[in-house]
Design a protein that fits this description.
Blueprint lengths: L1 H4 L3 H8 L10 H14 L5 H7 L5 E6 L13 H13 L3 E5 L23 E5 L5 H9 L4 E4 L9 E5 L1 H15 L4 E6 L4 H16 L9 E4 L2 H4 L2 H9 L4 E5 L5 H13 L8 E5 L13 E4 L2 H18 L5 E4 L2 E3 L22
Parallel strand pairs: 1-2, 1-3, 3-4, 4-5, 5-11, 6-7, 6-8, 8-9, 9-10
Antiparallel strand pairs: 10-12
Helix pairs in contact: 5-12, 7-8, 10-11
InterPro entries: HTH_LacI (IPR000843), LacI/GalR-like_sensor (IPR046335), Lambda_DNA-bd_dom_sf (IPR010982), Peripla_BP_I (IPR028082)
GO molecular function, one term: DNA-binding transcription factor activity
Protein name: LacI family transcriptional regulator
Length: 350
């Protein structure tokens, strides 16, 4: 091509590469190079152009859970929809790192997380993240965005749902219906999402002027064993008229709570109200729609891609974004039943 255009190979590279260096090239020279390219049927090699720019135009997606979603009902499916759509709109391809899938090396294995360096940057999904490998990547300046709010390590970008505000809104809705004793059931872990929901739940009680005595938040490592019919009847007898559960990957807290209510023979919402801080497990989708909120998973995925591509463009960090959750009215809450008034005191005997 250089011979046909009568110019040097360097000039050909400058013209076809867009002359990002800003070197002065005569218009006639540029036209000769482009005409030679058309004559020879030249088509730019995208891989070569990416290598020259030290970029692959690849965004990684790494999950810390056991598997990537294989069904649309999986809670991560909507995340990936948002990620794919926004990545395509911004001209990036995706590569899924599946080492933590069944039979893989596992996310916590030595060097497992380092594989993401094959991409220009990476999106991370999962409640429980190995801290030290993640801290090393952040310290090295590798572009990362976690889906979900994280306080550690310092400098990690994230896109999260505003669980605290959404949880407070659910509690305030219950208070507005007349509930005065509300209890939260959550799994016993230190995930940031669980902590945010609990904080919002307690903030909602405080905003409504409701008490939060000991036992208002129940943390359980074995919801199915500890939240049973006898437990629920005892709490109901103490005056608890509304029970709230957090959403997790397993849905164990919600499963246990609904099973306990059924086992106790209480009607929902006539005798007891139930609310869910998130969406129900897919296998319970046929049950009455729970009052609570919907997590904007697709928008969170798209927001995470925007943060990551901004990091790649200017290296700015840290970046955080909270996405608003939409309140879901559902059909599992109602005003608390009116308890029978105690009989009037008997007059003293003459």
């Amino acid at each position: 091509m250089a011979r046909l255009a009568g110019v040097s190979q360097t000039t050909v590279s400058l013209v076809l590469g867009g002359n990002k260096q800003g070197i002065v090239i005569q218009e006639a020279t540029r036209d000769r190079v482009l005409e030679a390219a058309r004559t020879l049927g030249y088509v730019p090699d995208p891989a070569a152009r990416r290598l020259a720019a030290a970029r692959n135009n690849l965004l990684g997606v790494f999950s810390f859970t056991a598997t990537f979603p294989t069904e649309v009902e999986h809670s991560y499916y909507r995340f990936l929809v948002g990620i794919e759509q926004e990545a395509a709109a911004r001209g990036y391809d995706l590569v899924l790192f599946t080492g933590s899938s069944s039979g893989g090396a596992g996310a916590g294995a030595p060097g497992a997380l380092d594989r993401v360096r094959l991409a220009d940057g990476c999106l991370l999904l999962g409640r429980h993240v190995p801290s030290e490998p993640l801290r090393r990547l952040v310290a090295d300046g590798f572009p990362l965005v976690h889906l979900g709010r994280r306080d550690e390590p310092e400098g990690l970008a994230w896109a999260g749902a505003d669980y605290a505000a959404a949880s407070a809104e659910v509690v305030e809705h219950l208070a507005g219906l007349g509930h005065r004793r509300v209890l939260l059931v959550r799994e016993d872990d230190d995930a940031q999402a669980s902590a945010d929901r609990q904080r919002g739940f307690l903030d909602g009680l405080a905003a409504a002027g409701l008490p939060a005595p000991e036992g208002t938040v129940v943390r359980t490592a074995r919801p199915a064993a500890e939240i049973d019919a006898a437990w629920l009847r005892a709490r109901h007898a103490e005056g608890v008229t509304a029970f709230v559960a957090e959403e997790t990957d397993t849905g164990d807290a919600w499963r246990a709570l609904t099973a306990a209510v059924s086992g106790a023979g209480l009607r929902v919402p006539e005798e007891v109200s139930l609310a869910l801080l998130g969406s129900p497990p897919a296998d319970l989708a046929g049950a009455p729609e729970p009052t609570g909120f919907d997590i904007p998973r697709a928008e969170m995925g798209a927001t995470a891609v925007r943060l990551l591509t901004d990091l790649l463009a200017d290296g700015h960090r840290p970046s955080q974004a909270l996405v608003t959750c939409a309140f879901r009215p559902g059909s599992t809450v109602a005003p608390p039943p009116r308890r029978a008034s105690p009989p009037p005191p008997r007059p003293p005997s003459p």
